[in-house]
Design goal:
By secondary structure, the chain is of the alpha+beta class. 34% of the residues lie in helices and 48% in strands. The longest helix is centred in the C-terminal third of the chain and has 23 residues, at 59-81. It starts with a strand and ends with a helix. The model has no long low-confidence stretch (mean pLDDT 88).
Length: 82
């Protein structure tokens, strides 16, 4: 299985206080859009992580995390088919 990360979207939460009319944007979640290649098949997908989890990873750790999550889902799917 190979993973290609296509793009990443970061969702922000607006925090506005009475003292400051300019909203402060705080990152909350990260959507990771990817393509999984397995054999001759290609499957696009999206996974959401908390920003705090995403920010502590480098690119290789992020790809490894996506691979692990997908592997768990594929194993559960195969188990349910039986």
């Amino acid at each position: 299985m190979k993973i290609l990360i296509k793009h990443i979207d970061i969702a922000y939460q607006d925090i506005t206080t009475f003292d400051d009319s300019e909203p402060e944007l705080t990152p909350v979640d990260v959507d990771i859009h990817y393509e999984m290649y397995k054999g001759q098949n290609t499957m696009p997908g999206k996974m959401t992580l908390a920003f705090s989890e995403y920010e502590s990873m480098n690119h290789y750790e992020l790809v490894h995390h996506v691979q692990q999550e997908l592997q768990q889902h594929l194993q559960a799917f195969e188990h349910d088919k039986q």
